[in-house]
Amino acid sequence: MTNDDVLSIFKSAGGLLEGHFILTSGRHSRTFLQKAFVFMDPPATEKLCQALAAKIKERWGHVDYVVSPAVGAVIPGYETARHLGAKAVYVEREEGKFRLRRGFTLPAEARVVIVEDIVSTGISVRETLEAIKDAPCVILGAAVIVDRSAGRADVGCELVALASIEVESFAPDEIPDDLKGIPAIKPGSRALSQSPAS
């Protein structure tokens, strides 16, 4: 699957948005990939995640567990795990930090890949790595549907991307004049509050 194929799926789902957006990283952009519009369509999600699973298998072979950061990557993490024949777990925020909760564990010697939906700066992948670094598993690397940094993001480990594109973004103190006049929208999920697991 090519970059154009992936972007075509986002466009068809109405998930390629133009305007003024505040990304999960805090940076500003004219373009936002609204993956929620893609992940509400099971056939489109299956197509992307099946292709991502194939890239993961090609790079690392057998995978036992997929770990994804909640909330946005839970669906693609699960669907990619399904195509890998692996188990799917996720990390959630607890007191501001990602942690394995709900009784999730990563067994000794389990071969683990982190699956994320979209990478801009790599923060969520790095935080996921931090959350599982003390588990006795083997962390192979991370995989993402779209790397919007075109390979520049520091995710803290090897990264495999289904699509790698460059989407211009700006630090909060470097917003160009044309964006300053447009109200900013923050469509990401990082600031969502999550109640403790019951």
Tell me the layout of helices and strands.
Layout: H1 3-12, E1 16-22, E2 28-33, H2 35-39, H3 42-60, E3 65-69, H4 74-84, E4 87-94, E5 97-100, E6 111-119, H5 123-132, E7 138-147, E8 159-164, E9 169-170, H6 177-180
Parallel strand pairs: 3-4, 3-6, 6-7, 7-8
Antiparallel strand pairs: 1-2, 2-9, 4-5
Helix pairs in contact: 3-4
- In the sheet with the most strands, the strands line up as 5-4-3-6-7-8
Low-confidence stretches: 191-198
Mean pLDDT: 91
Strand content: 25-35%
Total number of helical segments?
6
Straight-line N-to-C gap: 40 Å
Shape: globular
Can you summarize the main beta sheet? 6 strands, mixed
**Helix/strand/pairing category:** alpha/beta
- The count of strands amounts to 9
Order of helices and strands: HEEHHEHEEEHEEEH
Main attributes of the structure:
single chain, alpha/beta, six-stranded mixed β-sheet, 30% helix, globular
